[in-house]
Write a structure and sequence with these properties.
The complex is a heterodimer of chains A (about 400) and B (about 210). Chain A is of the alpha+beta class and about 400 residues long. Helix content of chain A is about 55%, strand content about 15%. Chain A has 15 helices and 13 strands. In chain A, strand 3 (about 95-105) and strand 4 (about 110-115) form a beta hairpin. In chain A, helix 2 crosses helix 11 (about 315-345), helix 10 (about 255-310) packs parallel to helix 14 and helix 11 (about 315-345) runs antiparallel to helix 14 (about 365-390). The longest helix of chain A is centred in the C-terminal third of the chain and has 54 residues, at about 255-310. The two termini of chain A are about 25 Å apart. Chain B has about 210 residues and is an alpha/beta fold. Chain B has helices at about 40-45, 70-80, 95-105, 115-120, 140-150, 170-185; strands at about 1-10, 15-25, 30-35, 55-60, 65, 80-85, 155-160, 190, 205. In chain B, the strands form two sheets. A five-stranded parallel sheet of chain B has the order 6-7-8-3-9, with helices on both faces. In chain B, a hairpin with a 2-residue loop joins strand 4 (about 55-60) and strand 5 (about 65). In chain B, helix 5 (about 140-150) packs parallel to helix 6. The radius of gyration of chain B is 17 Å and the shape is globular. The mean pLDDT of chain B is about 90. The chains are: A alpha+beta (about 400), B alpha/beta (about 210). The interface of A and B includes residues 10, 307 and 308 of A.
């Protein structure tokens, strides 16, 4: 016999009420925790994928669209820009590196990106098999692409026109897999990388690119979609975007600014979900309060006989607090476990968010506030019943039968 | 063993109990008699330290109850007093054995399972140790309540109307059990009852409102 054993015995006495209270609290905790885990995972992921890129340059249009297309590969680009102007940026002393991207095709929903080896180096990707592209139509697969497609070095595949994966196949210009990247946890895992000239070749053949460029093979006529810029100096942030935006054909967008703007838009939705989860936790605290108040009414003779057997007021209150603490702890533990389980398996029930699974399963410091909230709600729900137990008139209760 | 001197208790200004003087020696078995409403239960609660009389002095086992308050009095009660309330009040969430162990636990004494099992066997419910109170008959529950009252070997055992609602055979068995258990531990026994069947069992009688014999 222990105080804990006594509290457990009472919790077992009302299994349905106990279960419902635990479940209600668990749902609230799981909801709020899942929102925290997924939003933080999204933020972490977005910040990590944008890390090191100071500026994204592309065609004029929406700067957010430029960031989504150029860094996260989650939107269509606003258009193409002349290669000549991108090459000019390389000569700017404020620019340390320019990584050009040529977009337009995809393979099974994975984007085919014509770029320079600098992109592979930027993401710190290493080769798991084969090597990087050396010749036109050589392709290197990100780890997710390789796993999903089953392609291996030496295999060939045809890209489909457009970024959705449902366009016409470029059968005449198949790619040949020459390498597969090791997993990085970055967007590069979901890309097919090739040389820019491969993308030009596919579209020259297909007739989408400038025919004149094909004939003259001249950088003056060639186009790329986006250029990722790394500054040579922090001072560039003050002048370079303005200078680029002043040009007629180019637009510069700051990944840090646009990502923060995007996350603030998400924030409204997540705040609403958090508010709903808080309501659930509040409802569970109310349920706990009602259950404990009812239990106290049913149990006042037990409490009175416990006092008669030598229990102090403090011991009786401790039993009640421990009981509600147990329920709150169970609900909290169950909710946290469910949230982490769901976050870890997010890819199974929400394929679009599968990239978040790894980050989402990790413990976040904000979860301590959920712990405090749930336990606080449990204790708050116990205060009034505990006070009534403390003030119990033992003699009158024993006598009233 | 205990003495009550000039004890008076009032509820909301109305006198409900008056005992000018009452003394009992260790090992004596008393009947506290009187009609319903005469203050028998209140007197037991005063002896148990559950109720503080409006006026008067109560000394139990050499302890003046006015000198101990709060958790100290609770601890004293757990070790020195065994109470069998009229409604028994077994804890429904615990089985029979745990109900008796509860008395040891709450008194802060070592939990002696062997003593509990031995006692349950002695009061005739050894086979029911794992049953819950709802599965016990009134007589069985009465026995468990007696075991719970005496498990800590208290110096004073108080029983409130222990024969109420019992037939003659069970009433006799209960009184016999109480006396045997009180004798086994040398405890002073006070049985509050207005049941005429009790009087032959307990020759020392204190009838409320009368001078002690």
């Amino acid at each position: 016999m222990t105080t804990l054993g006594l509290a457990l015995a009472y919790a077992r006495r009302r299994p349905l009420a106990t279960l419902l209270n635990v479940l209600l609290l668990a749902v609230g905790v799981a909801t709020i925790t899942l929102v925290i885990l997924l939003t933080r995972a999204l933020e972490t992921r977005m910040q990590r994928e944008a890390a090191g890129i100071d500026l994204v340059v592309g065609a004029k249009g929406s700067p957010l669209q430029l960031i989504l297309a150029g860094i996260y590969h989650a939107d269509v680009p606003p258009g193409n820009v002349p290669l000549r102007e991108v090459l000019e940026l390389r000569a700017n002393p404020l620019v340390r590196e320019v990584i050009p991207l040529a977009l337009g095709d995809s393979y099974r929903g994975f984007r085919i990106v014509g770029t320079s080896p600098g992109l592979v180096a930027h993401y710190g990707a290493t080769l798991a098999q084969g090597g990087l592209w050396q010749a036109p139509m050589d392709a290197v697969l990100g780890s997710d692409v390789a796993r999903a497609s089953g392609l291996a070095p030496g295999d060939t595949f045809a890209g489909s026109h457009g970024l959705g994966g449902s366009g016409a196949l470029h059968q005449a210009t198949p790619y040949r897999v020459v390498g597969i990247l090791a997993p990085t946890g970055n967007v590069v895992d979901r890309l097919v990388l090739t040389g820019i000239d491969s993308v030009w070749q596919v579209h020259d053949t297909h007739g989408h690119a400038a025919a004149a460029a094909a004939e003259h093979d001249d950088a003056d006529e060639r186009e790329v979609t986006i250029a990722l810029i790394k500054y040579a100096s922090p001072l560039a942030a003050a002048s370079l975007p303005r200078a680029i935006n002043a040009r007629t054909s180019l637009q510069a967008a700051s990944p840090a600014y646009e990502t923060a703007r995007l996350l603030s838009v998400f924030g409204v939705g997540t705040d609403i979900i958090r508010g709903f989860a808080l309501l659930l936790i509040g409802a569970s605290a109310l349920g706990l309060f009602v259950a404990l108040t009812q239990a106290l009414d049913e149990r006042r003779h037990d409490l009175a006989i416990m006092r008669a057997l030598g229990a102090s007021r403090g011991r009786v209150v401790a039993v009640l607090l421990l009981e509600s603490g147990l329920l709150a702890g169970l609900g909290l533990g169950l909710g946290l476990a469910c949230a982490h389980l769901l976050a870890a398996s997010v890819g199974h029930w929400l394929p679009a968010a599968s990239a978040l699974a790894g980050d989402a399963a990790a413990w976040r410091p904000e979860e301590w506030s959920v712990v405090a909230l749930a336990l606080g709600a449990g204790i708050l729900a116990t205060l009034l019943p505990a006070w009534r137990a403390y003030r119990l008139d033992v003699a009158a209760t024993l006598a009233d039968g | 063993m205990f003495s009550l001197t000039g004890v008076e208790h009032r509820y909301a200004g109305t006198p409900v109990l008056r005992i000018d003087a009452w003394q009992a020696q260790a090992g004596e078995h008393w009947l506290l008699a009187g009609p319903s409403g005469s203050g028998k239960t209140t007197a037991l609660h005063i002896l148990a330290g559950l109720t503080t009389p409006t006026v008067g002095r109560v000394v139990v086992g050499g302890t003046d109850l006015a000198t101990i308050q709060g958790s100290a009095r609770d601890r004293w009660r757990g070790r020195c007093v065994g109470l069998v309330p009229q409604r028994l009040h077994l804890v429904g969430a615990l089985d029979v054995r745990a109900n008796v162990l509860l008395a040891q636990f709450l008194a802060g004494l070592p939990q002696d399972r062997a003593r509990v099992d031995e006692l349950l066997a002695a009061v005739g419910v050894g086979e029911l140790a794992h049953r819950y109170p709802r599965a016990l008959s009134q007589g069985q529950a009465q026995r468990v309540a007696v075991a719970r009252a005496v498990v800590n070997r208290p110096a004073l055992v108080l029983a409130d109307e222990p024969t109420a609602n019992l037939d003659d055979a069970h009433a006799a068995a209960t009184l016999d059990l109480l006396q045997r258990q009180a004798r086994a531990t040398g405890a002073t026994l006070v049985v509050a009852s207005h049941d005429a069947r009790v009087r032959p069992w307990l020759p020392q009688v204190r009838t409320l409102g009368e001078a002690p014999r």
